[in-house]
């Protein structure tokens, strides 16, 4: 009967806990009331160019970014490489481990906060007592004492301090969750962008080598003409300078290409010397014709960096509540039930039962730093709110810039495509004239050089449009949120 009374008393105390939580109840900030990212509405399509990787791109408002957005470039080699990176990248593994740590920390705190602490003890000791005293015959007694018991303690969270503290741990776990998703998005974007840059450098190396070969042939002809006295030495020297200047651009391109290979190796979690990676060319990529553009009111629920900042805002709100609760009374309950006996055989007998029930009320009367601590938590709450607004504004700026760059890329690519078509048409005309003998070989070589130089700038424009398309997917937050579960704080 006594045992049931103790348990009933403790359960009643626990049921009272958490009835009220002081401090602000966090609510997700309202989405900004803006309809577009720029002062002027974004165009529905980017400019089109009659060239591969120059097709028109349609902006589809409200469309979700696919989870595996890199597959929209239709490159099997790229898909395999990104999957390898997401599986083996040590940086992503570190982010995932940090998330697990935050989740387990929250679980540990939840167990300690929501449930009483129950401990059991069993002991035995030998004692010696001296019965001598004034007026009493002296004597000694040695005996054994056995004890066993169960102790239960619980903090009665009447004003929600523990609840707010647990809420802060949950928000921290959510923060690490969004950090991990941000790391995943960044990793995929880095792999895709690096592969595209490698393809750009490869195409530019091939075009530069072609230009160097044409210039060298032109120089050989000029040297022969100089030996025959047909041209001045200054003409030969000018051509030698041109060949040397063009050759000087080749090592830098080769170095950049090699650096993309080593970077890809690191991104997939391998040492550059042991990595067996595919090599990309421009033909490996197709430009997506439809680009998802999440409206501003939805972007705040899509981007991991915004959601991470919101989680820190939530944690600061909860910590503010913890600081306020510290000024209210704290009630601690404890109960113990056990037995003591002089013989182990009678340890659990009816006459050996001992019990205790205690409560303790602690009310701060004077604490010189308590008020300042509350104000400090309030300031941290205000700072987190301001930082959240900064993150949202920076995200909107990021999207606006990418949309503008994509439009500029399309116009640049259209102009470069037109220039390339003109250069190729001019080369074809000179080739026909050369066959008829109406132009010299030097004129033919000059036309070839112009065509190759135009090709180099065209490749750069194509690659820029590809990488800026990747930037748009990243600015839209990727597609990770399409299949994510409820946050820890919501649970």
| CATH architecture verdict | Up-down Bundle
Give the proportion of residues in helices: 55-70%
Q: What is the SS-derived class? A: alpha+beta
Q: How many helical elements?
A: 9
Cα(first) to Cα(last) distance is 38 Å
CATH superfamily caption? Outer membrane efflux proteins (OEP)
Shape estimate? elongated
Average of pLDDT = 83
Strand fraction equals: 5-15%
Question: How do the strands line up in the largest sheet?
Answer: 2-3-5-6
User: Residue ranges: pLDDT <50 for 5 or more in a row?
Assistant: 1-18
The total number of structural domains is 1
CATH class: Mainly Alpha
Instruction: Please tally the β strands and state the result.
Output: 6
Element string (H = helix, E = strand): HEHHEEHHEHHEEHH
Question: Summarize this, please?
Answer:
The protein has 491 residues and is α+β, with helices and mostly antiparallel strands.
Structure description:
The chain has 491 residues and is of the alpha+beta class. It has one domain (21-117, 159-332, 372-483): Outer membrane efflux proteins (OEP), CATH 1.20.1600.10. 58% of the residues lie in helices and 12% in strands. The chain has 9 helices and 6 strands; from the N terminus they run αβααββααβααββαα. The strands form 2 sheets. Strands 2-3-5-6 form a 4-stranded antiparallel beta sheet, covered by helices on one side. α2 packs across α4, α3 runs antiparallel to α4 and α8 packs antiparallel against α9 (441-475). The radius of gyration is 38 Å and the shape is elongated. The two termini are 38 Å apart.
């Amino acid at each position: 009967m006594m045992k049931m009374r103790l348990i009933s008393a403790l359960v009643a105390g626990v049921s009272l806990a958490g009835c009220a939580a002081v401090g602000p109840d966090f609510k997700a900030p309202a989405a900004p009331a803006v309809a577009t990212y720029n002062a002027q509405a974004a165009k529905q399509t980017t400019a089109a160019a009659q060239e591969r990787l120059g097709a028109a791109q349609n902006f589809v408002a409200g469309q979700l970014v696919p989870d595996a957005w890199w597959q929209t470039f239709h490159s099997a080699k790229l898909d395999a490489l990104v999957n390898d990176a997401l599986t083996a990248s040590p940086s992503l593994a570190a982010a995932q481990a940090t998330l697990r740590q935050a989740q387990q920390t929250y679980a540990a705190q939840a167990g300690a906060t929501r449930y009483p602490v129950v401990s059991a003890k069993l002991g035995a000791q030998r004692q010696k007592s001296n019965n001598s005293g004034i007026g009493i015959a002296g004597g000694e007694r040695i005996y054994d004492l056995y004890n066993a018991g169960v102790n239960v303690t619980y903090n009665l969270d009447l004003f929600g301090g523990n609840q707010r503290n647990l809420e802060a741990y949950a928000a921290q776990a959510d923060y690490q969750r969004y950090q991990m998703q941000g790391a995943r998005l960044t990793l995929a974007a880095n792999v895709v962008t690096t592969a595209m840059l490698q393809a750009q450098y490869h195409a530019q190396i091939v075009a530069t080598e072609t230009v160097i070969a044409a210039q060298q042939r032109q120089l050989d002809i000029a040297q022969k003409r100089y030996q025959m006295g047909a041209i001045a030495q200054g003409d030969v020297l000018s051509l030698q300078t041109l060949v040397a200047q063009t050759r000087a651009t080749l090592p830098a391109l080769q170095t950049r290409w090699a650096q993309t290979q080593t970077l890809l190796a690191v991104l997939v979690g391998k040492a550059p010397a042991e990595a067996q990676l595919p090599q990309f060319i421009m033909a490996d990529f197709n430009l997506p014709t439809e680009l998802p553009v999440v409206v501003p009111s939805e972007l705040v629920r899509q981007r991991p960096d915004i959601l991470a900042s919101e989680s820190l805002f939530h944690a600061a709100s909860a910590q503010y509540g913890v600081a306020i609760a510290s000024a209210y009374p704290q009630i601690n309950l404890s109960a113990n039930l056990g037995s003591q006996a002089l013989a182990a055989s009678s340890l659990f007998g009816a006459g050996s039962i001992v019990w205790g029930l205690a409560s303790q009320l602690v009310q701060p009367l004077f604490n010189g730093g308590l008020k300042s601590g509350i104000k400090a938590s309030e300031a941290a709450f205000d700072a987190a709110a301001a930082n959240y607004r900064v993150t949202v504004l920076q995200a909107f700026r990021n999207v606006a810039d990418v949309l503008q760059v994509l439009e500029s890329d399309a116009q640049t690519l259209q102009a470069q495509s037109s220039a390339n078509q003109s250069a190729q048409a001019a080369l074809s005309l000179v080739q026909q004239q050369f066959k008829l003998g109406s132009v010299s070989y030097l004129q033919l070589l000059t036309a070839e050089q112009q065509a190759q130089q135009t090709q180099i700038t065209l490749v750069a424009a194509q690659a820029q449009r590809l990488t800026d398309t990747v930037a748009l997917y990243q600015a839209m937050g990727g597609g990770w949120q399409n299949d994510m579960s409820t946050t820890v704080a919501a649970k």
